[in-house]
Design brief:
Length: 262
Amino acid sequence: MTDTLFSYIERLHGGAEWGTLLDAGTGQKSLDWITSLDTRSWTAVTGEAAVAERLTTEFEKQIRPRDRIVSGNWTDPALLYGDRFDVVLADYLLGAIAGFAPYFQDRLFTRLRPLVGSSLYAIGLAPYPQNAENPWAEVLLEIVRLRDACILLGGRRPYREYPADWVLRSLEGSGFVVEEVEKFPIRYGTRFVQEQLNAAGSVLPRLADRALAQQLEYAIAELRDRALSCHAAMGSQPFGEDWIVLARPKIQHDHAYIQGDT
């Protein structure tokens, strides 16, 4: 799915130059893609210093002298102050920022607005539906609920996702003009089952109540077996969706419109 989303962004971008690019919420997948593009330079921001160090090591050969990986929080007004980039990528940043800057989501696009010279590409996951339409969707809902419960019990904050309609309102209220919106249905497989339940299990050592931790470990194991059996019987079914939005700063967008009319 990640390759599909990035390929769609490349189609939207067409023959335009990438120029200077900001990966506003970086990770291995987005950085893999960005380092494959013909950019003049790129900057990648992560909220975790350990992630910045790891990515710097992993991408040592791809980092040019003008490229950089930065650790920082978007609540810090000094972060990249005065910088501007031709293209800004917010790859699942809206949901993930809940773990680093709770309650800042409604300010995120306003914060990014001065950094965007031409194009903002935002990728996100729509909130999961509350009701399951089939047994596979039902077991997926159980997985994400158990994962989030374990994360909360471990003293951390789970991601908080937003629907595309909310994103459009936020962008338009932050000085952007939305040009493109696309939604991509998701088909989760066994890798999702393993990754999410492994994430749930990874926080159990943090629980002071060892009896509760043990019961959750049993619940994770039982749900894993049931999910794998369900997938073997049904295969993957559509469940949830990703969205991609292309937005431009309003002044830049209006200027381009006027030029095109003359």
